[in-house]
Design a protein that fits this description.
CATH class: Alpha Beta
Largest sheet: 5 strands, mixed, barrel
Strand order of the largest sheet: 3-7-6-4-8
Order of helices and strands: EEHEEEEHEHEHH
C-alpha cells in the first residue's frame, strides 16, 4: 500500500496543486502560524495522512545556503515571553521548543513576520532560513503523531530587498520540489 502523503504549502503561487503526482494531495494553508496550525489540524483529522510534507519559500539568514533545503529542525523565532521564558520558548508549556524531521541539515526559524533585517539571535541559534508556517505544521504533526518533512526554497536574503526578491522568485522552487518528492516517493 502506498503511503498517504499530504503536501502543505501556504500559497498557490508557491506550488501548483495540479502538478502533484497521483495520490498526493496539496493543501493550501494560507500565510502564518495560525492559518498553518488550523489547516494542518483539519487535514490530519480529516485525511489521516501517514506523512505531512511542507513546501514553502524562505529567506536565508545563513549566506552559505541556496536553492532547495531539506529542513532538519524548526524553532519559533517570534515567541517572546521574556521574562517568563527565553526567546523561542513557550512559557508554561511542556511541549518542545524545537521539532526535528529526522532528515536534512538546515534549521528553520518560523515567525509571523516577514524578515527584512539582520537578527543576531537567529545567527546565535544556527538558523539557516526563516519562514512563516513550518513551526506550526511541525507542532501540529507532533501533537497528532504524524511524521513530517519540510523543504524550503530560498527566495531572498531576509534583508531590505526581501519583498521584491520574494515576489520575483516565489514560483521558482516548485520544479525542484517536485523532483525531490519523486525521489522520496521512489524510496
Amino acid at each position: 500500500m502506498t503511503k498517504k502523503i499530504l503536501i502543505l504549502t501556504a500559497l498557490a503561487s508557491e506550488l501548483n496543486a495540479a502538478d502533484a503526482p497521483d495520490g498526493v494531495e496539496v493543501i493550501y494553508t494560507g500565510v502564518g502560524k495560525i492559518n498553518a496550525a488550523a489547516t494542518a489540524t483539519a487535514a490530519i483529522l480529516q485525511r489521516q495522512p501517514q506523512l505531512i510534507v511542507n513546501f514553502g519559500t524562505a529567506g536565508k539568514v545563513n549566506p552559505g545556503v541556496d536553492g532547495l533545503l531539506d529542513i532538519a529542525s524548526v524553532i519559533q523565532r517570534d515567541m517572546l515571553a521574556i521574562p517568563l521564558a527565553a526567546r523561542g520558548v513557550t512559557p508554561l508549556s511542556d511541549e518542545p521548543n524545537s521539532y526535528a524531521s529526522g532528515h536534512g541539515s538546515a534549521i528553520c526559524g518560523t515567525g509571523d513576520s516577514f524578515v527584512t533585517a539582520s537578527d543576531p539571535w537567529l545567527v546565535e541559534q544556527g538558523v539557516d532560513v526563516v519562514d512563516m508556517e513550518l513551526f506550526a505544521i511541525a507542532h501540529t504533526s507532533h501533537r497528532y503523531g504524524v511524521p513530517w518533512r519540510a523543504f524550503k526554497f530560498i527566495t531572498d536574503s531576509a534583508d531590505e530587498d526581501a519583498a521584491d526578491h520574494w515576489n520575483d522568485n516565489v514560483h521558482r522552487g516548485a520544479e525542484l520540489f517536485w523532483q525531490t518528492l519523486d525521489r522520496i516517493l521512489a524510496d
